[in-house]
Amino acid sequence: MTPVQIAGLVVLGIVAIFVISAIARSIVVVRQTKAYLVERLGRYSRTLDAGLHLLVPFLDRVRAQVDLKEQVYPTPPQSVITSDNLVVDIDSVIYLQVTDARAAVYEIANYWIGVEQLTATTLRNIVGTMDLEQALTGRDHINGHLRGVLDEATGKWGIRVNRVEIKAIEPPVSIKDSMEKQMRAERDRRAAILTAEGVKQSAILMAEGEKQSAILMAEGDAQSKILRAEGEARAILQVFDAIHEGDADSKLLAYQYLQMLPEIAKTDSNKIWFVPTEFTGALKAVAAGFGGAEEPEPLNRDPERAKRRTPLTNVLTDPRVALEEARRMAESVSADAESAGSASGATFDPNVSKGQQPG
User: Fold this and answer.
1) Which residue ranges does UniProt annotate as crossing the membrane (predicted)?
2) Are the beta carbons of 175 and 86 closer than 8 angstroms?
3) Are 99 and 158 in contact (CB under 8 A)?
């Protein structure tokens, strides 16, 4: 192969490589949510959307690639002076989206820097008219006003500001300490008020409970006393009626007292005995047997029983005879009591205690 042929082959290869590279550069694939700006001979030609596109080799070129998604841009802390001459640091977050790729590239050199500087100046203007308390509690007002100013200013740049959020407002350290002390004092005051209210309500409820309890106890005590008095009255009436129906005299009552004397003498604590007059009257017969005195006639003595009774008119000089006479009189008293009980239709048991025997 001659040198001329070799040179021709080299030139042909170079041309092929140039043609292939030109064709490769003329084919452009645009991804979703992207926009390509094409310039022809240094002048804006068109905007390429997502898809496959062909460019004119050596005439068209891609000027810029613009992202059409919503973007989050945190601004650095801005030192702002409030109306009460306090310096606060404000951090903000901006949510924006490019709506016109051509304007975002050709209307401003760098829209990120423009948004940042515009945010700083707008924050100074807004917060400068507010005091610290209003700035801390008026975040919604600051967000809305700042978004309106930014959206209006960035509209010609092909940018839409969707949201503006104040991330943090940091007052000076001394102001923070004062605010914490104020908040602590306010919480202590509220805690003291709540505690006092709780104690007050508790005392009221306790007083109401004690009042209701005392009322119920008094009503129960009154009812109990009324029922007890009614029961005692009925018992007294029944005993009184039983005594009068049985026609009991002093001898029967003396016999009942004789039955109760052993019960009284059972315990050692009984040092004093109360002897009723009916019992002493019944014992006068025994005394009359030893001393020769005649037994006095009771006021309520039954005339029929007096006829059947043998008076003690003889003086008993022998103690044994007097004792026999006393035993006979006791047996006579018991017989009279039994006959009196049978005559009234009631039975008499000498072994029954006083509390169970009628009269």
Assistant:
1) 6-30
2) yes
3) yes
